[in-house]
UniProtKB/TrEMBL annotation:
Gene: BGL2
Family: Belongs to the glycosyl hydrolase 17 family.
Gene Ontology annotations of biological process type: cell wall organization; polysaccharide catabolic process
Record membrane topology: Single-pass type II membrane protein
Alphabetical keyword list: Carbohydrate metabolism, Cell membrane, Cell wall, Cell wall biogenesis/degradation, Glycoprotein, Glycosidase, Hydrolase, Membrane, Polysaccharide degradation, Secreted, Signal
Basic and acidic residues composition-biased segments: 349-359
Source organism (scientific name): Coemansia pectinata
The protein, known as: glucan endo-1,3-beta-D-glucosidase
Family matches, as InterPro entries: Beta-glucan_modifiers, GH, Glyco_hydro_17
Amino acid sequence: MKLTLTLATLATAAAAANQFNGFSYNPKQLKSGACPTVDTVRDDLSVLSKYTNQVRIYSVKDCNQGEPVLRAMENTDWKVQLGMWVSNVESVYEADRNELIRLAGVFDFKKHVSAVIVGNEAIYRKEQTSAQIAAKVRDTKAALTKIGLGSIPVTASETWPYYDPTLVAAVDYVNVHAFPFWEGTPIEGAQDKVFEHIYAIQKLAGSKKVVVGETGWPDAGGNYEAAVPSLANEQRYLKEFICRANLEKIDYIWFSAFDEAWKPVTNASDVETHWGVLKGDKTPKFSSPMYDCKGFVPNTKPSSSSSVSSSASSSASKTGSKASSTPSGHSSTDKSDNKSSDTNNNSDKSSDSQDKSDTSKNSAAWSPVGSGLSAVSIVASMAALAVSALI
């Protein structure tokens, strides 16, 4: 009996070490970029079910992908964060908004929709102002409330310099992107960099929950300054980020589920097709477990005198990037852009004056992710059970 419990503990720990709060997911077919069908989405979700029960998509209207994703989730415990694409063409938002409301009349949003995300780096791309995105967040929230779905959290996804008080005031929770790779950070400093950003955003957010809406590291492609894409670096960043996020009860969506061969390679470093934890053939890049938090000790919280607002105004005055404005995930920068703009693309900046009470406040609110207990808490609970059984 004691041996059985011990083996069960080890099995549970191994399973937990493959779990993610959620994945960024574009349901377009991985090689061709063809629009998804219910069957292709079901196949994707079947593969991803080993690792999570939640995905984030970027548009419900592009390829009409909202419908096959929600249809594939029927009669399951899958959750989706539904994206609404926003560009400098207002009809794009209107089309996504209308499709969102139509889908709400067809599917069980209360069961399957964990959040609605209005816009993805549109302020960074200089296609919208924070006031414009804030107005769209309020408009979407009002539309959902009108049909009895006001309990579904509504937010916007932005890079750290562009989350200002105007946008914070409008969202139900702050959904921010953090990519030390795009700051040219060497892997040795990536853990400090990303959490430095998170703490500053938490300070800016006050009582509102902060979720890392995208983070990750590519396993192949060209270097970006001191940031080197490699399989070892991707796994190291994955472990250090997830283990520390679990300890600090910070929710996140990992960028991304799969390598996507259809994506254009036109940005500063030819890495766009290499962000997945699974290959284009849907097999895992890493042996199981993907990460192991046993014995993990996070770095000391970094000290920083930088602030989000000052960084934002500094970056906003620089040359804008030639970022992709298609609903395909995070924006891709061009190497001709300055480093500050690339930092804006996929990072959140932060200060360290985050204290313990702020961290507790951040984790006490509702969670937009559906992953339940963190890997750390599951392993700790099962380990305690095994020890007690052996005594």
